[in-house]
Amino acid sequence: MVEEVWVEKYRPKKIEEIVGQEEVTKRLSTYVEAGNMPNMLFAGPPGIGKTTAALALAMELFGEGWEANFLELNASDERGIDVVRGKIKEFARTKALRGGFKIIFLDEADALTKDAQNAMRRSMERYSSVCRFILSCNYSSKIIEPIQSRCALFRFRQLREDAIRDRLSYISGKEGLTITDDAMELLLLSSEGDLRRAINMLQSSSAIKKEIDAEVVSAATSVVMPGEIRRLIELAMKGEFMESRKLLRELIMGYGVAGEDLIAQIHREVFRLSVPDEMKIHLAGVIGEYEFRIVEGSNEIIQLEAMLAQFALKGGK
Amino acid sequence: MRLWVEKYRPQRLDQIAGNATSVKRLQAWVEEFRRGEAEKKALLLHGPPGSGKTSAAYALARELGYDIVETNASDIRTKTNIERVVGTASKMGGLDPGQKGRILLVDEVDGIHGRSDFGGLAAIKNIIRKTREPIVLLANDPWALPADFRGLCEALQFKRLDRRLVLRVLKEISAKEGIAADEKALATIATNANGDLRAAINDLQSLGQGGRIGVEDSASLFMRDSEEGIFKVLSRIFKTESCARAREAVYDLDEDPETILHWLAENLPREYEDPSDLARGFDSLSRADLFLGRIKKRQSWRLLGYASDLMTCGVSLSKRRRYHRFTRYQYPAFFAMLARTRAKRDLTAAVSAKISRRCHVSTKVAAQEFIPLVRALFRDPVRAARLSSYFGFEQREIELFDPDRAKEIYGEAQKITAERITTRGVQTALF
Description:
The complex is a heterodimer of chains A (317) and B (431).
Chain A: H1 6-9, H2 22-34, E1 40-43, H3 50-62, E2 70-74, H4 81-93, E3 102-107, H5 114-126, E4 131-137, H6 145-150, E5 152-155, H7 161-175, E6 178-179, H8 181-191, H9 195-206, E7 211-212, H10 214-221, H11 226-237, H12 241-254, H13 259-270, H14 277-296, H15 300-316
Parallel strand pairs in A: 1-4, 1-5, 2-3, 3-4, 6-7
Chain B: H1 4-7, H2 20-34, E1 42-46, H3 53-64, E2 67-71, H4 79-91, E3 102-106, H5 120-130, E4 135-139, H6 147-151, E5 153-157, H7 163-177, E6 180-181, H8 183-193, H9 197-207, E7 212-213, H10 215-219, H11 226-239, H12 243-249, H13 257-271, H14 275-298, H15 304-316, H16 333-340, H17 342-359, H18 363-377, H19 381-391, H20 395-398, H21 406-430
Parallel strand pairs in B: 1-4, 1-5, 2-3, 3-4, 6-7
Helix pairs in contact in B: 4-5, 7-8, 7-9, 8-9, 11-12, 12-15, 13-14, 13-15, 14-15, 17-18, 19-21
């Protein structure tokens, strides 16, 4: 099938094609040679190759028809360990077609509660003769000790800018795009080391124009008009809290902007304001605090409104 | 469209929810009347709206094979009118053999008053004295009727229905209508109805149009009774400077913490005018929300106490001055927005699930990173069709990206899918 999404189209099919993770890929290759593998824990930030590594490993181990031997679950979507266990059981019930075992890839395993992880651990033991597990997480410290001790730990490193730049250039060449230097810099900056995001941004930009400059990238990556964001900040800083809150709600509900995207744009916009630099850095601290609270908290609208109240306070002084 | 209160009106007396004793007495009285043994020639069913008075009368008529001759407040009930409708019916039939029996039903009898219904009550009194057919009068408030009028009737009370009973009926109807209703949402509807089954069923129908009812839908019902409760709590938290009193404020409130948090956030800026009070107050709410987030993610329910402290006492002590004036509190816009944007969110969830399967990411990442990408790529209708085939989007899912051209794009996408399947078929045959 023709891959329409570049992240898939250019996803490495072989372990050796994975960029920037030499230590990991070397070890994984030995498993392919041996035709066997232990349970594994992949740790590292998003968009640096954890899922790709798991998929490539399965493809190389099992060859054609590898999908039948590979179950992919995402802990942040499979609510409740019972669902996970049910699916694992169902999958493990039938014999592996090739290689003598099957692979269960559990992504975002750190989203599981401690209790769920304990239940997971029992599943790992029960099906150890027929299944290998690959758990993937952002932080290995959020995985309980007993699971860690049963897994070979693989730390995926943050990708260097060069690695991302090379990959984007490679894709641009294949897709017949031209890309200016400052457009590339902007892509590197806004993707924050996340290759998946960088490729998605590149493809979004290509939908506007084949000749990609910074303006195209900026248009493609900001969902909301910068003008609206500026108005939001200015209203709040003038102390017009109710007005700014109204605009915030329109942006969130009307445009369907995710809180985290909105806050990233607010961050960008703050440095373009005509306020003293000290104020800018102060606001950046506030924004950072509330981005953290959005991630940890339950409701982003409450957090964003609280942030606007902080803006209103700082602006008034 | 048919109203569910009509569709599910009980057909038999034993299907009437609650008030069993009164229902039995109603049946016995009509039988006594027929035998000429009834002491009073009219029965006054009184009780709050939606407690089953009308339903009981109709179910009885149906069981006995009687007709109902009804007049209610929407009719003009002057003396002449009543004599024409009810009076005529009361003289006919009776014990004549072969004649179908009748029950004369005067609904909202406590609403017959004033100039427009002039002489209406007097006319009914006359009819009661002479009637050959049983007369059933319905009223919410029997004390609004003159004593001599009441004296002509046997009074029978219908009580507010128990919440659990209402809930049971709601569940039955949801099941019959095939609505996926959240148990908590139904409980909210039932509580909110305050014993009025008709109101509860109407709420159920209006919320259930989409085939499912979530918790956020039922939250939009607040407006009725329990609003008073939450208003009191808000006012206590905002006005007091005592930590103990603020904490106590939520004890009696039967609401989940997240709902209270939204009420507080909505109304905090209406109360705390000083920017630093507002910022501090919001900081407390924000930190309360942090705990709620941790509770959700890690199931650490022990943390609930801290969230509650911050929401109540934390907010109370955020102010440096008192706000004496009266504040008109408002219903959280967040709930209304949730209900309004639900269809869109459902679509987003469905689309995210499809993207998540194809691109090996969680639905969250699919929504945040891939939906914007797909939207950008949809600018080109040819590519839009290819993408729709690639992800297997339905037409309504395509509407999320391009509502105007969804139909054409979907048509093209189906062609592409069909072609792909044929090609694959050929390949399989060859190898």
